[in-house]
Amino acid sequence: MFAFLGMVLIAVGIWGFWAGEVMAGSRGFKANTYTREDNPVLFYLFVAMYVLAGVFVVMSKPWPWAGS
Hints:
The chain is an alpha+beta fold. About 55% of the residues lie in helices and about 20% in strands. Helix 1 (about 1-20) packs antiparallel against helix 2 (about 40-60).
């Protein structure tokens, strides 16, 4: 389950990088997004956070078929 969650986080980061827009929480009932053009620093920060969090989750839990 953790491996799937990590892969989803990595996919969200990559998808946001390709699309040029990444979701970064909410502002009331509206999604708060950062784009590459409007705020590039926060855009790349959130892309990096999604990808690195996904890699950490995938690598921290051993795969079920790995043995130990």
